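Hi L.,

You mentioned the student needs an example of a multi-chain input paired with its predicted structure. This one should do, with 574 residues in total across all chains.
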Amino acid sequence: MKLITAIIRPECLADVKAALFRAGVTGVTFSRVSGHGGEREVVQQYRAETVILEFHEKVKVEMAVSEHYVEPTIAAILSSARTGNVGDGKIFVQHLDRVVRIRTGEEDTAALTPVTADAVQRQAQRQAAS
Amino acid sequence: MTPASPLVAGDTAWVLMSTALVLVMVPGLACFYGGLSRNRAVLNTMLMSFGALAVMSVFWVVAGYSLAFSTGSTWLGDFSWAGMQGVGVAPNPTYSAGIPHVLFSAFQMMFAGITVALISGAVVERMRFTAFLLFALLWGALVYVPLAHWVWADGGWLRSLGALDFAGGTVVHISAGVAAVVLARMLGRRHDAGRTAILPHNVPLTLLGAGILWFGWFGFNAGSALAADGISANALITTHTSAAAGLLSWIAVELIRTRHATAVGAATGAVAGLVAITPAAGFVSPLSAIAIGAVGAACAYAAIQLRAKTAIDDALDVFACHGVAGIVGALATGVFATKVINGAGADGLVAGNSRLLGVQTIAVLATIAFVAVMTPVVVLAVNSITKIRISLADELAGVDTKEHREEGYHGGGLAEFAGQAITLGQRVVLPAHEVYGQALSGGD
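Structure written out for the whole complex:
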């Protein structure tokens, strides 16, 4: 199990999301973050003040995936978040010791196997009927 | 009661309306300034405008109006109208023949309020609120009131000299601008001014404020005719034209210098155009108003660039927008005024009379000198009664939380979900299912 963290351009978010879903990665957390990399600083003007914005707005994408999803996830992000310019971001892959699904208490790979609310509901109805 | 001249319903209606329009400039200014400040100072910034209005209004009724507008001497009125005694429904023909005297007084009350509110833009993020209120009272009494008397009152020396100030270029804008720079200098810079970029926290709020100011300015200038007549209509169109020219002039300069027109710049340019036309509105043609607005805004732009190189932290550039554009307007009145527009006015340089420009220059210099000398006296007096500046620790934490124990922007964040704030008396925020006795159910 790996935790994959990607820092991407906000304007690439829609494409990255689509690519991840297509690769079957549906458990994703996004957050807006600010950071500094190798990009040129943004210059703005307020009355007499010329302002250099040192931090760039980025989106952080976090996904916990089982082993055989690691390469497809990375490939999906590379294909959708790359513009070729400085500032495209990074992908970090870390080992995960343990994963627990809060709803059921399932652990590790079972906890990472995606389920949909519809499937869960159907299962609950079947149990109630039997 | 003075022998009654008949009230004119149209005039009375317009000045009633104009009084309300000038009042609206105060929240307009509060938005304009509030948007330009940082978000942890937005409440203090906006509240100073409202506070100044309240202080000056009460003072105006008690003694301010009397000291400013009763005949008295050439330098100051007396207490004959204190507490609005004798200021009744009947018109006072000296100031305005067709409207109730008490309405004239109310209209002037709003001017006193907005003038002190203008100064507050210089001191944001670092002045103690109570000290500002005290400053408003003393500055109003010792600076605004004598100036208003000199320029507008029966027997005032600048009025007798023939100086023209249609709606308050000297009394309101030059005086507020000079007072702002003096107060900012004496108060000192914000702890991080010049070390870090200080950005406006809400530019849309600033644009809204500029729009409200623009709207209210129709009452400020066109209302200063004190009648619903041709002079009033002329003042309205010159006011609007100058604001538009100021906006275009500012963004033209920006486009040349930085290749980008900015929203803050457009709002500032419009306000500078409004300031510049203020003394001239009822005396010049709409065509002249284009020149006045354009030059006023360009000069204010230059003044802001120069101010940024100094150590004076006139935070929202009150001196550049009001002082400099006000000076441009007062002098331009001496250039562009013409009796063709207003028979009760005077001819300026363009109409072949060079004397008026000299008189206008005297009025400008007298105003600057008086305000520059008196404002430090007021500041020292306030500081001897109560400390004027908040502590560095409070400044770092933010003037809103420390001076007012309030914040402009709570909601929206995680803090709301997390129950960051609890009502006094509670100890803990219990989980919802313990309070309501039911578990969180999982949707559908």
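You could point out the following to them. The mean pLDDT of chain B is 92. The radius of gyration of chain B is 23 Å.

Best wishes,
N.
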